[in-house]
Amino acid sequence: MKVTAAQLAHLLEGSLEGDPNATVSRPARIEEAGEGDFAFLDNPKYEAYAYTTQASILLVNKSFQPSQPVKPTLIRVDDVRSSLAFLLQKFDTENNANGTVISEQAFVHKSAKIGIGTSVGVFTVIEEGAVIGNNCTIYPQVYIGRNARIGEGCRLFPGVRIHFDCVIGDNCTVHANAVIGADGFGFAPQEDKTWKKVPQVGNVVIENDVEIGASTCIDRAAIGSTIIRRGAKLDNLIHIAHNAEVGKNTALAAQVGVAGSTRIGDNCQLGGQVGLAGHLTIADGTRIQAQSGLSSSVETPNSALFGSPAIGYKDFIRSHVVFKHLPDLQKKVLELEKKLKEMGGSE
Fold this sequence. Notes:
- The chain is of the alpha/beta class.
- It has 2 domains: 3-95, MurE/MurF, N-terminal domain (Udp-n-acetylmuramoylalanyl-d-glutamate--2,6- Diaminopimelate Ligase, Chain: A, domain 1, 3-Layer(aba) Sandwich), CATH 3.40.1390.10; 107-316, Hexapeptide repeat proteins (UDP N-Acetylglucosamine Acyltransferase, domain 1, 3 Solenoid).
- It is built from 5 helices and 39 strands.
- The strands form 6 sheets. It has an 11-stranded mixed sheet with strand order 10-13-16-19-24-27-30-33-36-38-39.
- The longest helix is centred in the C-terminal third of the chain and has 21 residues, at 326-346.
């Protein structure tokens, strides 16, 4: 994809300073960019690179005031990060275009429905009654089960498994080897110490504009639905158990584990390896530091938590400072006890 500075400025509704015919074909980091690249500057720590970069075009905020001559053509925008996200999406769409054909080596059941402009890669299997919307890209070796529903504008990367009856909304991305709708972990203990499997007859519902990372597993509900709400972003290697719910625009980092029937509110942020016990309710706006573990619900919105079991973030930091000095504190306590005993014995 090649585009001129004038075209970029028009796309971004920005102002242009320099050569309007400067042409770029790929994004690059400001410190590594060369001719034909576009780069961006949104952090003052990187301003020095603005005067040395070889990029052809540089995105900057409207408030940027260079202290030295700048070689690249500048495009000034209100918000560099938002403009960059928009451009990267354009380039990503171009790079991942996969045509509009259904591979002869794919299996599509005669009752399945495939939307206009949707492509299906080799060795993909689409089962009976499945429905896929318009303008989707289904990469090779994807499995879409019986009666599954996929909305418009979705991308399913290689190895994705969508099990029967599961529903995915519009403009969703599911990365390689993610599994949507495997059985929840439901077993009933028996008197003879064995386990009896409880059938998992629900499904998974993923709303619009959700992104699911590679090798993430979202289990189907025992009854009803496991739900990922609109705009949620899930990283790689996450496990969402049966009947759990992830709220709107909530972001979960890698290796988060959410046990069954736990409900995470809207606009939450969970760091890597956070673990949530089952049947909890996590209030909207909660932020949980990486490697924290929760065994009780969070009732206060916009809480910041840390630790295992997690406590208030600031409380944990203060406690950690004390914890590091416990050996010295113990020594002082023992010395004080000794002095108190000596004082008592001298009376």
